[in-house]
Amino acid sequence: MPTGPDTLLQALHWRYATKAFDASRRIDAPSWDALEQALVLTASSYGLQPWKFLVITDPAIRAELRPHSWNQSQITDCSHLVVLLKKRVITAADADRLIAATAGERGLDPSLLEGYRKMIQVDLIDGPRSQVIGAWAANQVYIALGNLLTSAALLGVDTCAIEGFSPPDYDRILQLEGGDYQSCVVCACGYRSSDDKYAALAKVRYAAADLVEHR
Question: In this structure, are residues 42 and 154 in contact, taking their beta carbons and an 8 Å threshold?
């Protein structure tokens, strides 16, 4: 069933970039499964889904990542650490994979999707955007990040999106070098510590009248 407007806005007012997590609390399995599915269900341009999501719960790996994350405590203290990866390039194989999956899921002959397949080829594989495909893929990953932040808030799970880290070092530690994906952005998920002073601070947002224009 749809969530009511009040529920949505209460969740968004409640969430903040959590700076201190309660290291003793863990997200329960049903809630985490739902958040993983929220990531999977995220919208993307062409439906290409140029991402992967690494869920890091191993304390040793997180301890190794922390020095390359400006030593932020969220890396080691949160319940689940998500490293959102972007695809380095979009290839013909990626387009073919999407067409095959779409045809299979919807019971279609793949030939009926050839026009759509050609659009992807002309735009992302052969066209000018192929030269900036890393930025395009990162934009898609940030859609997934936003979806994760909102979905977590609706479940009462705290989050902190983290750009303060070294992607090359993450790629090395997570053995991504030379692979199809690379680190893009990080999100710590868990429950706020009672000592986090930021939880009580007023949320600072510009007025809707300054940001939303109707025409």
Answer: no
